[in-house]
Design goal:
Elements lengths: L1 E4 L6 H9 L2 E4 L1 E4 L5 E4 L7 E5 L6 H17 L3 E6 L18 H12 L1 E7 L14 E4 L2 H11 L3 E5 L5 H11 L2 E9 L5 E7 L7 E9 L3 H12 L4 E9 L5 H7 L2 E7 L8 E3 L2 H13 L2
Protein backbone atom coordinates (compact mmCIF):
# COMPACT_ATOMS: atom_id res chain seq x y z
CA UNK A 1 0.00 0.00 0.00
CA UNK A 2 1.22 3.50 -0.89
CA UNK A 3 -0.25 6.65 0.70
CA UNK A 4 -0.41 9.69 -1.57
CA UNK A 5 -1.22 13.00 0.05
CA UNK A 6 -2.96 15.80 -1.83
CA UNK A 7 -2.66 19.49 -1.00
CA UNK A 8 -5.87 19.30 1.08
CA UNK A 9 -4.97 16.26 3.18
CA UNK A 10 -4.53 18.45 6.30
CA UNK A 11 -1.80 16.15 7.63
CA UNK A 12 -4.05 13.09 7.72
CA UNK A 13 -1.93 11.44 5.01
CA UNK A 14 1.16 11.61 7.23
CA UNK A 15 -0.60 10.17 10.28
CA UNK A 16 -2.31 7.42 8.25
CA UNK A 17 0.97 6.34 6.67
CA UNK A 18 2.51 6.00 10.14
CA UNK A 19 -0.44 4.01 11.49
CA UNK A 20 -0.45 1.65 8.51
CA UNK A 21 3.33 1.49 8.14
CA UNK A 22 2.99 2.46 4.48
CA UNK A 23 5.23 4.54 2.23
CA UNK A 24 4.15 8.16 1.77
CA UNK A 25 4.34 10.45 -1.24
CA UNK A 26 3.01 13.91 -2.07
CA UNK A 27 1.15 15.15 -5.11
CA UNK A 28 2.92 18.03 -6.83
CA UNK A 29 0.68 20.81 -8.13
CA UNK A 30 1.42 23.88 -10.19
CA UNK A 31 -0.75 26.33 -12.09
CA UNK A 32 -0.76 27.48 -15.66
CA UNK A 33 -0.88 31.27 -16.20
CA UNK A 34 -4.65 31.11 -16.70
CA UNK A 35 -5.14 29.41 -13.32
CA UNK A 36 -5.63 25.83 -14.51
CA UNK A 37 -4.17 23.16 -12.22
CA UNK A 38 -1.35 20.85 -13.28
CA UNK A 39 -0.82 17.67 -11.23
CA UNK A 40 2.21 15.40 -11.07
CA UNK A 41 2.21 12.05 -9.24
CA UNK A 42 5.51 10.83 -7.73
CA UNK A 43 6.97 7.36 -8.27
CA UNK A 44 4.86 4.84 -6.35
CA UNK A 45 6.20 1.82 -4.47
CA UNK A 46 2.98 -0.24 -4.44
CA UNK A 47 0.18 -0.81 -6.91
CA UNK A 48 -2.52 -0.12 -4.28
CA UNK A 49 -2.48 3.66 -3.91
CA UNK A 50 -4.49 5.51 -1.29
CA UNK A 51 -5.08 9.17 -2.19
CA UNK A 52 -5.86 11.36 0.82
CA UNK A 53 -7.60 14.55 -0.24
CA UNK A 54 -10.37 16.39 1.58
CA UNK A 55 -12.72 18.55 -0.48
CA UNK A 56 -13.34 21.53 1.75
CA UNK A 57 -13.24 25.11 0.39
CA UNK A 58 -12.28 25.76 -2.36
CA UNK A 59 -14.26 22.63 -3.18
CA UNK A 60 -13.89 22.76 -6.96
CA UNK A 61 -10.12 23.13 -6.81
CA UNK A 62 -9.62 20.33 -4.26
CA UNK A 63 -12.04 17.98 -5.98
CA UNK A 64 -10.55 18.53 -9.41
CA UNK A 65 -7.04 17.97 -8.05
CA UNK A 66 -8.26 14.64 -6.67
CA UNK A 67 -9.77 13.69 -10.05
CA UNK A 68 -6.59 14.57 -11.95
CA UNK A 69 -4.48 12.60 -9.46
CA UNK A 70 -6.71 9.55 -9.78
CA UNK A 71 -6.69 9.80 -13.57
CA UNK A 72 -2.87 9.88 -13.60
CA UNK A 73 -2.75 6.82 -11.34
CA UNK A 74 -5.29 5.03 -13.52
CA UNK A 75 -2.94 5.45 -16.46
CA UNK A 76 -0.27 3.80 -14.27
CA UNK A 77 -2.61 0.81 -13.74
CA UNK A 78 -2.87 1.48 -10.01
CA UNK A 79 -5.69 0.20 -7.81
CA UNK A 80 -6.98 3.46 -6.33
CA UNK A 81 -8.62 4.12 -2.98
CA UNK A 82 -9.77 7.70 -2.45
CA UNK A 83 -9.86 8.88 1.16
CA UNK A 84 -12.01 12.01 1.27
CA UNK A 85 -12.36 13.04 4.93
CA UNK A 86 -14.82 15.81 4.10
CA UNK A 87 -16.90 14.94 1.05
CA UNK A 88 -18.21 18.05 -0.69
CA UNK A 89 -21.49 18.14 -2.61
CA UNK A 90 -23.02 15.41 -0.41
CA UNK A 91 -25.92 17.61 0.73
CA UNK A 92 -27.76 17.57 -2.60
CA UNK A 93 -28.78 13.92 -2.62
CA UNK A 94 -32.09 14.30 -4.45
CA UNK A 95 -33.89 16.71 -6.75
CA UNK A 96 -36.24 19.02 -4.88
CA UNK A 97 -37.33 20.78 -8.06
CA UNK A 98 -37.40 19.69 -11.68
CA UNK A 99 -34.09 20.29 -13.38
CA UNK A 100 -31.91 20.23 -10.25
CA UNK A 101 -28.70 18.24 -10.49
CA UNK A 102 -28.09 15.60 -7.83
CA UNK A 103 -24.58 16.73 -6.99
CA UNK A 104 -23.47 13.73 -4.93
CA UNK A 105 -24.33 11.38 -7.80
CA UNK A 106 -22.31 13.55 -10.16
CA UNK A 107 -19.30 13.41 -7.80
CA UNK A 108 -19.59 9.62 -7.53
CA UNK A 109 -19.68 9.34 -11.33
CA UNK A 110 -16.62 11.55 -11.67
CA UNK A 111 -14.63 9.51 -9.13
CA UNK A 112 -15.47 6.24 -10.90
CA UNK A 113 -14.64 7.70 -14.30
CA UNK A 114 -11.26 8.91 -12.98
CA UNK A 115 -10.40 5.37 -11.91
CA UNK A 116 -11.22 5.32 -8.20
CA UNK A 117 -12.22 1.78 -7.18
CA UNK A 118 -12.61 2.22 -3.39
CA UNK A 119 -13.91 5.12 -1.33
CA UNK A 120 -13.39 6.11 2.31
CA UNK A 121 -15.10 9.13 3.82
CA UNK A 122 -16.01 10.44 7.28
CA UNK A 123 -19.59 10.90 8.50
CA UNK A 124 -21.18 12.04 5.23
CA UNK A 125 -24.25 14.26 5.59
CA UNK A 126 -26.30 11.30 4.33
CA UNK A 127 -24.81 7.89 3.65
CA UNK A 128 -27.54 6.46 1.43
CA UNK A 129 -26.52 8.20 -1.81
CA UNK A 130 -22.99 6.79 -1.52
CA UNK A 131 -24.35 3.41 -2.56
CA UNK A 132 -24.46 4.96 -6.03
CA UNK A 133 -20.66 4.51 -6.06
CA UNK A 134 -20.74 0.75 -5.52
CA UNK A 135 -19.83 -1.77 -2.85
CA UNK A 136 -16.25 -0.83 -2.04
CA UNK A 137 -17.04 1.93 0.42
CA UNK A 138 -16.09 2.44 4.06
CA UNK A 139 -17.65 5.18 6.16
CA UNK A 140 -15.53 6.30 9.11
CA UNK A 141 -17.67 7.16 12.13
CA UNK A 142 -15.81 9.81 14.11
CA UNK A 143 -18.51 10.36 16.74
CA UNK A 144 -16.87 8.14 19.36
CA UNK A 145 -13.43 9.73 19.03
CA UNK A 146 -14.90 13.24 19.16
CA UNK A 147 -17.14 12.38 22.11
CA UNK A 148 -14.21 11.01 24.12
CA UNK A 149 -12.20 14.13 23.28
CA UNK A 150 -14.97 16.49 24.40
CA UNK A 151 -15.67 14.40 27.51
CA UNK A 152 -12.11 15.00 28.70
CA UNK A 153 -12.59 18.76 28.47
CA UNK A 154 -15.87 19.12 30.38
CA UNK A 155 -16.69 18.16 33.97
CA UNK A 156 -20.49 18.55 34.07
CA UNK A 157 -21.66 18.12 30.48
CA UNK A 158 -25.05 17.88 28.85
CA UNK A 159 -25.41 17.04 25.15
CA UNK A 160 -27.84 19.04 23.02
CA UNK A 161 -28.94 18.19 19.49
CA UNK A 162 -29.76 21.41 17.58
CA UNK A 163 -32.59 19.65 15.71
CA UNK A 164 -34.37 16.32 15.59
CA UNK A 165 -32.17 15.15 12.73
CA UNK A 166 -29.16 15.19 15.05
CA UNK A 167 -30.96 13.35 17.86
CA UNK A 168 -29.47 9.92 17.20
CA UNK A 169 -25.97 11.38 17.23
CA UNK A 170 -26.63 13.32 20.45
CA UNK A 171 -28.10 10.27 22.14
CA UNK A 172 -25.14 8.10 21.23
CA UNK A 173 -22.63 10.76 22.24
CA UNK A 174 -24.38 11.27 25.59
CA UNK A 175 -24.19 7.54 26.29
CA UNK A 176 -20.44 7.60 25.64
CA UNK A 177 -20.00 10.70 27.81
CA UNK A 178 -22.33 9.28 30.50
CA UNK A 179 -24.48 12.38 30.67
CA UNK A 180 -27.98 13.67 29.92
CA UNK A 181 -29.11 14.86 26.50
CA UNK A 182 -31.88 16.87 24.89
CA UNK A 183 -32.88 18.11 21.46
CA UNK A 184 -34.47 21.17 19.93
CA UNK A 185 -37.02 21.51 17.19
CA UNK A 186 -36.22 24.19 14.69
CA UNK A 187 -38.15 25.90 11.93
CA UNK A 188 -36.55 27.23 8.76
CA UNK A 189 -38.72 29.61 6.72
CA UNK A 190 -38.64 30.11 2.95
CA UNK A 191 -35.89 32.74 3.36
CA UNK A 192 -33.65 30.33 5.27
CA UNK A 193 -34.13 32.00 8.65
CA UNK A 194 -33.86 29.51 11.53
CA UNK A 195 -35.89 29.76 14.73
CA UNK A 196 -36.20 27.46 17.74
CA UNK A 197 -39.69 26.24 18.54
CA UNK A 198 -39.27 23.99 21.57
CA UNK A 199 -36.98 21.65 23.47
CA UNK A 200 -37.51 18.06 24.51
CA UNK A 201 -36.26 16.93 27.90
CA UNK A 202 -33.23 17.74 29.99
CA UNK A 203 -32.40 20.18 32.76
CA UNK A 204 -30.02 22.85 31.50
CA UNK A 205 -29.40 24.63 34.80
CA UNK A 206 -25.75 24.72 35.78
CA UNK A 207 -24.74 22.37 32.94
CA UNK A 208 -21.85 22.67 30.52
CA UNK A 209 -24.01 22.27 27.43
CA UNK A 210 -22.28 20.98 24.32
CA UNK A 211 -24.22 21.22 21.06
CA UNK A 212 -23.36 18.28 18.77
CA UNK A 213 -23.89 18.19 15.00
CA UNK A 214 -22.27 16.46 12.03
CA UNK A 215 -21.50 19.73 10.20
CA UNK A 216 -21.16 23.28 11.48
CA UNK A 217 -21.54 25.41 8.37
CA UNK A 218 -22.73 29.01 8.86
CA UNK A 219 -23.36 28.47 12.56
CA UNK A 220 -26.92 29.85 12.45
CA UNK A 221 -28.51 26.75 13.98
CA UNK A 222 -25.82 26.47 16.68
CA UNK A 223 -26.21 30.18 17.46
CA UNK A 224 -29.95 29.79 18.08
CA UNK A 225 -29.39 26.67 20.17
CA UNK A 226 -26.73 28.37 22.29
CA UNK A 227 -28.96 31.32 23.10
CA UNK A 228 -31.75 28.95 24.03
CA UNK A 229 -29.47 26.91 26.31
CA UNK A 230 -28.38 30.05 28.17
CA UNK A 231 -32.00 31.15 28.54
CA UNK A 232 -32.65 27.82 30.27
CA UNK A 233 -29.82 28.33 32.76
CA UNK A 234 -26.79 26.68 31.14
CA UNK A 235 -23.50 27.52 32.88
CA UNK A 236 -21.60 27.40 29.59
CA UNK A 237 -22.17 26.38 25.98
CA UNK A 238 -19.73 24.68 23.60
CA UNK A 239 -20.22 23.49 20.03
CA UNK A 240 -18.92 20.24 18.57
CA UNK A 241 -19.00 19.23 14.93
CA UNK A 242 -17.29 16.47 13.01
CA UNK A 243 -16.85 18.74 9.98
CA UNK A 244 -16.08 22.38 10.83
CA UNK A 245 -16.95 24.14 7.59
CA UNK A 246 -17.29 27.47 9.46
CA UNK A 247 -18.48 29.62 6.55
CA UNK A 248 -19.65 33.26 6.66
CA UNK A 249 -17.79 34.15 9.90
CA UNK A 250 -19.41 31.28 11.77
CA UNK A 251 -16.75 31.51 14.48
CA UNK A 252 -17.63 35.14 15.21
CA UNK A 253 -21.33 34.31 15.17
CA UNK A 254 -20.87 31.54 17.74
CA UNK A 255 -18.67 33.67 19.98
CA UNK A 256 -21.30 36.45 19.95
CA UNK A 257 -23.88 33.87 21.05
CA UNK A 258 -21.71 32.94 24.04
CA UNK A 259 -20.20 29.72 22.72
CA UNK A 260 -17.08 29.24 24.82
CA UNK A 261 -15.32 26.50 22.89
CA UNK A 262 -15.56 24.82 19.52
CA UNK A 263 -14.60 21.15 19.21
CA UNK A 264 -14.09 19.24 15.99
CA UNK A 265 -12.00 16.81 13.96
CA UNK A 266 -9.23 17.43 11.45
CA UNK A 267 -11.29 16.65 8.34
CA UNK A 268 -11.16 20.42 7.71
CA UNK A 269 -8.56 22.89 9.04
CA UNK A 270 -9.94 25.22 11.73
CA UNK A 271 -7.45 27.24 13.78
CA UNK A 272 -10.12 28.53 16.18
CA UNK A 273 -11.22 25.05 17.31
CA UNK A 274 -10.02 22.36 19.70
CA UNK A 275 -9.42 19.59 17.18
CA UNK A 276 -8.90 15.85 17.61
CA UNK A 277 -7.01 13.77 15.04
CA UNK A 278 -9.10 10.93 13.58
CA UNK A 279 -6.36 9.39 11.44
CA UNK A 280 -6.48 6.08 13.32
CA UNK A 281 -10.22 5.80 12.62
CA UNK A 282 -9.58 6.49 8.94
CA UNK A 283 -6.72 3.96 8.85
CA UNK A 284 -9.11 1.29 10.13
CA UNK A 285 -11.53 2.11 7.30
CA UNK A 286 -8.68 1.82 4.78
CA UNK A 287 -7.89 -1.63 6.17
CA UNK A 288 -11.54 -2.55 5.70
CA UNK A 289 -11.70 -1.60 2.01
CA UNK A 290 -8.34 -3.29 1.45
CA UNK A 291 -9.82 -6.54 2.72
CA UNK A 292 -12.63 -6.44 0.14
CA UNK A 293 -10.40 -5.55 -2.82
Amino acid sequence: MFILGGTASNGIDIHVSRVLGADLGKVETTKFPDGEIKVKVPEISDNHVVIVQSTYYPQEKNLFELLLTAHALRDMNADITAVIPYLAYARQNRSFYQGEAISINAVMDLLKAAGVTSLVTVNPHRSGPLRYFGSRIAITNAESTLAKWVGKKLSNPMVLAPDKGSLDMAKGVAEMMKCDYSYLEKHRDTYGTVSIRMTHGGNFKGKEVVIFDDIISTGSTIEQAARYAYSEGAASVSAAGIHLVMADDAVGKLKNAGVDRIFGTNTIPCEKADVVDISEDIAESIRHVAEIR
